[in-house]
């Protein structure tokens, strides 16, 4: 069989994509012009040259600056629509899309503007054959109070998102900081996920599970350092949304050949492959599959396992999941 062709063509779900991280430099400059925003870069090439990261924080600084061009509902729509067309191209049938409202509300852009544009793109995506839903992420470098205020602002639009997540600077901002926010979201019937064990220690994965009670772990690759945690993740079938090219660009692993995706799968974990911030890390979901398989020697059985894991790990309706799997 032609493994690269299979990886590209197989139906898949994407469970870890930050929509602000899908904003390509070309669209960023187009929106800057449209909105009269001045970017601190002379050109698309100049901007791309700045995409040389040493860790998570060095990326986040540039990622938040890039989002400054997003002002109007149409801007959020256009960004999400561009991603959804890419997703269709990669045969993504289900996309669960993160967005960071605090990055925008802090600049005076309303929750209605952000979610209005993103949700309209998700609705339009039905015509592409992509089933897309939104997950609201709290920025963990900000306070519990600010997270509660963000939740309050979003609740009038409760029918436009299916869950909440936790992202941004991990080390120094353990899951416990948001215990009460997540408890409230759980009462509201929202799905719960959190970034944990990207740069942070296995302890953060434990507390995401036991304190926040999340259903999935975003990244989670540091879990491999803790055998008891690996057993817990396997036993409870907690999905890990792994992002290999992100891990490479943010230097979580020195090269893709050293990535632990294969070890996670071989330990029986529900690991999945995702793009995280494809405009910044140099590849959408199929590029993540192709490059990781080429570098680590994963085979056709791993390909089927990863495709099945992506639908099993999704928050799609049980009936839709059965159809996908
Ligand atoms: N926000 C966007 N991408 C992120 C990542 N990889 N980790 C934490 N926060 C993020
Ligand atoms: Zn992420």
From TrEMBL:
It comes from the Bacteria. Residues 11-325 form the Adenosine deaminase domain. Binds 1 zinc ion per subunit. Its cofactor is Zn(2+). The keyword Repeat does not apply. Keywords: Hydrolase, Metal-binding, Nucleotide metabolism, Zinc. It catalyses: adenine + H2O + H(+) = hypoxanthine + NH4(+). The record marks 219 as: Important for catalytic activity. Substrate binds at residue 277. Its EC number is 3.5.4.2. GO terms for molecular function: hydrolase activity. Pfam families: A_deaminase. Zn(2+) binds at residues 16, 18, 195, 276. The active site is at residue 198. HAMAP family: Adenine_deaminase. Catalyzes the hydrolytic deamination of adenine to hypoxanthine. Plays an important role in the purine salvage pathway and in nitrogen catabolism. Belongs to the metallo-dependent hydrolases superfamily. Adenosine and AMP deaminases family. Adenine deaminase type 2 subfamily. This is Adenine deaminase. The lineage of its organism: Bacteria, Pseudomonadati, Pseudomonadota, Betaproteobacteria, Burkholderiales.
């Amino acid at each position: 069989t032609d493994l690269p062709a299979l990886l590209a063509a197989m139906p898949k779900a994407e469970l870890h994509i930050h929509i602000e991280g899908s904003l390509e430099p070309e669209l960023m400059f187009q929106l800057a012009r449209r909105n009269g925003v001045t970017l601190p870069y002379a050109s698309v090439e100049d901007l791309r040259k700045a995409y040389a990261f040493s860790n998570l924080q060095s990326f986040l600084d540039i990622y938040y600056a890039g989002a400054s061009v997003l002002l109007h509902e149409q801007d959020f729509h256009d960004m999400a629509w561009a991603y959804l067309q890419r997703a269709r191209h990669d045969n993504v049938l289900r996309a669960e899309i993160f967005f960071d409202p605090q990055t925008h509300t802090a600049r005076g852009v309303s929750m209605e503007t952000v979610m209005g544009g993103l949700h309209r793109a998700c609705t339009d995506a039905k015509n592409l054959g992509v089933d897309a839903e939104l997950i609201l992420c709290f920025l963990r470098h900000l306070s519990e109070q600010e997270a509660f205020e963000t939740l309050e602002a979003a609740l009038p639009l409760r029918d436009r998102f299916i869950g909440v997540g936790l992202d941004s600077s991990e080390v120094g901002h353990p899951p416990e900081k948001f215990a009460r926010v997540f408890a409230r979201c759980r009462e509201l019937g929202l799905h719960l996920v959190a970034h944990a064990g990207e740069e942070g220690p296995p302890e953060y994965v434990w507390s995401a599970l036991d304190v926040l009670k999340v259903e999935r772990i975003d990244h989670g690759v540091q879990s491999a350092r803790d055998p008891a945690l690996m057993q817990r993740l396997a036993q409870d079938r907690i999905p890990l949304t792994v992002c290999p090219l992100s891990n490479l660009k943010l230097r979580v692993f020195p090269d893709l050949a050293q990535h632990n995706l294969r070890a996670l799968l071989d330990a029986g974990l529900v690991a999945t492959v995702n793009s995280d911030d494809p405009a910044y890390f140099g590849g959408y979901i199929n590029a993540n599959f192709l490059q990781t398989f080429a570098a680590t020697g994963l085979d056709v059985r791993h390909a089927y396992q990863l495709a099945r894991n992506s639908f099993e790990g999704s928050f799609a309706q049980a009936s839709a999941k059965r159809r996908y799997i």
